[in-house]
């Protein structure tokens, strides 16, 4: 299957990459190795690592950084911008609906059991509408490209999408190492993301808020795989990074312990899962949350971003209905298409998937991070048969998609420059308005021929350029 190379069309360099052709050819191997070592040293020094759970030894790894940027034209990005914002609006409308009257279910557009029996559906917030009617405040939409104009949404992340620190640090790294590139090319900035995030969070403060809202980031602590990002964003926004023990409930409000006494908190950007937010409402054994937090939330004393229960919108089976959500709530046709998907819960789809297992990508409905999935064409017969038994044991836990011919971008490898598969995660902010910085996290599958871009599975990151008009 032919693969779309984002830099080359036949023997010709595509216009977006024209400014990088001479730079690439003029970089000798020794300079490239030197710059790569410099980047790794900087990443290590400032602590850009991630944890891989379930492995022995030191869990912190340096995330691989590729110096060859990925480039989008202004018009390419304009289409993505419109499509991503459309999707974020529809997903939030869906969440408002299913925690309210459930009109889309009454209309027969989506099965009731897929929503109300979903483990991510939180009955504790049914009937409650969060401030400004926003449930998912940071929407990370994973996008793949298969041709010059062909973009597909691979999945939606409506809870706590991670990776934005890599987007920002990759740009900082490139500007530090190759300042001439930024003088010679007109590249849209991404460094205002933290301002937009702070603006978004403050815009959804509860009605009981008095004066300027106090915003905090709630982290599970330094053992969490994304802890660097939590502290990084707190520093950039100028807000406090807190753990559950730093907060307490008193009456109708949440307070933060400080050296100057209790301080009321209005907005919590939570980076912990629903189950651990409040031991009085969810898991009673949670040591990460705040007892009584959900009572304050439901009474309008604090905003939680993203809202508890938002995860029902990024379930991989619910994902298949997002185009229908766009038509139902917005009265529009989807700008960005889904990847064709088979739901193993359906008898016909299950039969098709089992027949075509060596050709498909199969994922757990609630899986993430590249775990719990089968890439048929890259798997052994034994792996395929093992996965077949898993599917038969619980068909509703799996969906399947075709093995797309993902686009490639030039990537620095040991032998020089070679094409590697990439995807893209832009970060859409939803508050009083919807904002999207021109760029995102490009993840790259560093292993030759690999389609798995997740850092936990050997993937790396690179800077994402959007050219100004």
TrEMBL record:
It comes from the Bacteria. InterPro entries: ATP-dep_Glu-Cys_Ligase-2, CP_ATPgrasp_2, UCP005522. It holds the Pfam family CP_ATPgrasp_2. This is Circularly permuted type 2 ATP-grasp protein. Residues 69-445 form the Circularly permuted ATP-grasp type domain. PANTHER family: BLR5612 PROTEIN, SLL1039 PROTEIN.
